Amino acid sequence: MKRYVLICKNCGAIQKQDLYACSVCGGALYTRYDLSDKRRLSAAIRNANEFWDYAPLFPIEQPHKAVTMKEGFTPLLNAGGLGEELDISRLYIKNEAVNPTGTFKDRCMSISVSKALENGDKALIIGSAGNAGAAAAAYAALAKLPCYVFVPASTPKERIAQISVCGAKVIGVEGGVTDCIRLIKEAAPKRALRNITTAAVYNPFQADAEKAIAYEMAKAMDWNVPDWIIVPVGGGGILAGIYQGYKDLLELGIIDHLPKMAGVQEIGCAPLVDAFEKSSPSAEIEEARSPAGIAVAIMDSFPLDGASALDAIYESGGQALAVSGGELMAGQLLLARTQGVYAEPASATAIAALRRLREAGTIARQDSVACVITGSGMKQMNLTAEYLAEIPCIKADAGAAEELFDALQ
Ligand SMILES: *Cc1c(COP(=O)(O)O)cnc(C)c1O
Ligand SMILES: [Zn+2]
User: Fold this and answer.
1) Which of 114, 134, 248, 340 has a CA positioned 20 to 30 A from the CA of residue 195?
2) Which residue in 105, 140, 103, 106 sits closest to 125, CA to CA?
3) % pLDDT > 90, the chain
4) Torsion of CA 101, 270, 323, 230, to 10 degrees
5) In 88-209, where do the E strands start and end?
6) For residues 218 and 67, is the Cβ–Cβ distance under 8 A?
7) Are the C-beta atoms of residues 153 and 179 closer than 8 Å to each other?
């Protein structure tokens, strides 16, 4: 018996076999696990010491053959320094920057590529703003599968380099990440390429990867739940996944309530925030018209998992807010200067949002808060370099050094 069933979001049909889209209507699928064996699953979650220890809650039949680089199981840092700065007494940072390729996408790709091998797939394709592509390329290399990565043509060349170096074929598309994802939808099945894009509509299996972030945080907090979890939103998958993880823990009786979810986007590409502000039904998110901003990892003009993310925000009594480029860069600096954690711009939106929510009083001083730092600042160092002041330069002699110290002190 399978540990999970695949159900169509659109027509509700339960699939008879592992598929990537509904056999009846072509709709998006999601996995639902049988959580009735509470004792066994709770023990698995409580005793886990690495990402793949959660395999009973992953859609993989043979976890011992998983394609893994020890992704996940990232540290939950006690962010006292930052908390002091922002007047929050219990603040945590879930640091996904330490994943093998620098973002949480490694979790999704470990599962996706493992699934592809189980299926006997011979080649992979993905539409990405860069981070999922870099993770796909790395895990494809490990699995010895060819991989095609479609990225926006405007993607910074350092991001492309991280993909190409693993041997994946990178194709630039004149448009945004949403265009890349749309473009490969038709091409993938025709060419027998497995689409491993990190959106549930195209790849329902990877969505389970992000639940583990919740399991890990709960364990690190000794099965306490933060009042707030602040998560950057691109497609919306990570926010929805973390919330689902907490729902699993609730159903298993490991925790007794759910956190409030706050989703953050950048002004200029904030379709989820627009929908939240209008109290729109989650099925009625409108595509952003001319997306623009500096947080390239979350420039999704249409959030493909936005409905699930918005449902999580509504249901939890959470928030959705958009921050400016200036605010998120200030957040990047503040996090680095208080905690030594260098977040990528998309991730630094969480710090900017935290400041806003605290200043508005939405988050109280005594609330416990976790910010998910989704990726590493090393992904986009040029932006920080442009933002920071030039360094002083001196002649290589002792007199010049003395003069400089005198000036600085
Ligand atoms: C992909 C990504 C996000 C957004 O994740 P979604 O699941 O698409 O919402 C946020 N931050 C970073 C660094 C990412 O790579
Ligand atoms: Zn269907």
Assistant:
1) 248
2) 140
3) 95
4) -60
5) 90-95, 124-127, 147-152, 169-173, 194-195
6) no
7) no
Q: In the β-sheet with 194-195, what is the strand arrangement from edge to edge?
A: 169-173, 147-152, 124-127, 194-195
Ligand 1 centroid, distance to 270 Cα (angstroms): 14
Calculate ∠ Cα 395-397-402, nearest 5°. 95
321 sits in which H/E element: strand 319-323
Residue 357 has pLDDT above 80, yes or no: yes
- Ligand sitting nearest the alpha carbon of 271: 1
Instruction: Answer whether 108's CB lies under 8 Å from 128's CB.
Output: no
Q: Which ligand number lies closest to the CA of residue 380?
A: 1
Whether the Cβ atoms of residue 208 and residue 201 lie closer than 8 Å to each other: no
Residues with Cβ within 5 Å of ion ligand 2? 8, 10-11, 13, 22, 24-25, 27
Q: What is the pLDDT of residue 1?
A: 61
Q: Which of 94, 239, 374 to mutate to test the pocket of ligand 1 (most atoms within 8 A of CB)?
A: 374
* 258 CA from centroid of ligand 1 (Å): 22
Summarize the confidence of residues 277-301 as an average pLDDT: 96
Looking up tokens 């509904």 gives 22
Determine if ligand 1 sits within 6 Å of the CB of residue 238.
yes
Residues 196-245 have pLDDT tens digits of: 999 999 999 999 999 999 999 999 999 999 999 999 999 999 999 999 99
Residue 82 neighbours by CB under 8 Å, 6+ apart:
91, 93, 334, 335, 338, 339, 351
Residue given tokens 């394609």 in the structure block = 67
Q: Enter the DSSP assignment of 302.
A: S
Cα of 403 vs centre of ligand 1, distance in Å, is 46
